[in-house]
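Exam review. A common question shows you a sequence with its structure tokens and asks you to describe the fold in words. Practice with the pair below. Do the first one on your own.
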Amino acid sequence: MDLALWISAWALAVVALFGGVSKAFVSKEKLAAVHGGGWTEGVGARSIKVLGVLELLAAVGLVLPALLDRVPLMVPVTAACWVLLMIGAMATHGRRREFGFVALNLAYLALAGFIAWGRFGPESFTG
């Protein structure tokens, strides 16, 4: 189970890293032009950048605290926060009837939920 949690955390960290880089460093106009970028309509550029920074922090928080053995509790806390972020993403894409993205966000939510459950519970770093 520990290996599955590590693989899940790394996979989700990669997703968060790519999403964070694109939101934090790519212009709103370029994001809006790509497939699935329509959600940026009605969202301020600063809000998109904030989402990007949050995703970058999630990428770090999903693996680095455990790797460095410094406040490893941050791993499941980060995963739980990712669940909340994905609920928001699912609501946003659902309003736009982008159900493929809703399903993708649901998969990310499930992965984050697995990490949070596993690291808070049976495979806790503190237990």
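Now try the second one, then compare your answer with the model answer below.
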Amino acid sequence: MRRLLAGPGVTHLPGVYDPLTAALAVRAGFPAVHLSGAAVSALALGLPDLGYVHGTHIADRAATLMPALGGVPVLADADTGYGNPLHAVWTARRYAAAGVAGLHLEDQVSPKRCGHLAGKELLDAGAAAAKVRAVAEAGTGLVLVARTDAFTVTGLDDAIVRCRVYLDAGADAVFVEGVTGADELAAVHAALPGVPLVVNRSEASGSDAFLDDARLAELGVRFVLHPVAPLLAALCAARAAYAAIAADGSADTVGRLPWDAFTGLVDQPAALALDARYSEVPA
């Protein structure tokens, strides 16, 4: 993940949330993936991204992905660190133990509000930097992305000041939530030359036109997150299948993954071969 972050181009990190979506992402050729707190909250608890999940939920979910990822690194949502600097360190260590390669840590007050909702409250920059420093000095080896939600609360200038503070505290990259336009990204890039930037391409922020990869790379962007796009696509397909079964008694009109492709994703042929091998009775 550090190599990707230090490279000259843009890497897209799609959201994954179970072993099968992880396997699909690997087969699509992605060199890194993302694990969203909103996705885990929705799938594990059926609840919105309003502080219901904890780092333990994210780490447990991450651990289930690792065999399917085969070494493809995961950048995981660490929310606010789930408390004070000591709690943030515990979260980072739990993530590292689960096999996560990097995390992003934000500067909202705990428990935070979803990044796309009004009414967000920010921690004092010094208090937020203390969490960044604690995680950076914890020795986990995780890539540390410092996220600030200041852009929509106190403006771009304050967001840039906060980014500098977090970089001084040990962050490897910065993520200015809500900033995706050329002018704002150019301002951040000019103020923080050489610093890898992370941007969020989430459906929660609407469908505004997005810059192409060449322009994003010029502006210092190295990671583009797509936290919930696959989840929303899957739910759309499931909704269509349920509606077809309810209306017609069959899902035949709905596009579906072929059964052989499904059994391939769960590696059924290999499992059957092993079962047969270990079931053999010695002569």
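Model answer, second protein: The chain has one domain: 2-234. The CA atoms of residues 40 and 58 lie 7 Å apart. Full marks require stating both points clearly.
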